[in-house]
Design goal:
This protein is α+β, with helices and mostly antiparallel strands. It has helices at residues 32-35, 46-59, 62-67; strands spanning 7-8, 86-99, 102-113, 116-129, 132-139. A hairpin with a 2-residue loop joins strand 3 (102-113) and strand 4 (116-129).
Length: 142
Amino acid sequence: MSRPVNVSANSQLDTSTACPCGTGLAYAACCGRWHEGAQHLQALTAEALMRSRYTAFVQDKLDYLLQTWHPDTRPLALERNPPGCKWLGLHVVAHAQQDADHATVEFIARRRDAGRATRLHETSRFVRLDGRWLYLDGEFPA
């Protein structure tokens, strides 16, 4: 697997730039296709949706994040990344499909805010509703 692309928050990616989610594919062939265009909101797997949501966090695509959040757990609004936030990478630890409409993805996302590195380790739950994968919620392993 190639190294993730370091991207400052609020920056826009050229469609040929490597996708921030770390697959090594160009943004347009990876998460970009789920963010806009003919395949908008149509990630084929829970892992693809999770990767696209990471990239949406990197790019401050708040509408996309809200549209891919299950209505029962969706917040009313999200805040943009703070100035100077730099996303450092995504590592998918594991993913599992429980049945046709339920899946989990464990991941570690790293970022730096004002020079301080942080990491988010989460096991996210996803459900398919009306043919679309949605983020339901997450647990934070110890």
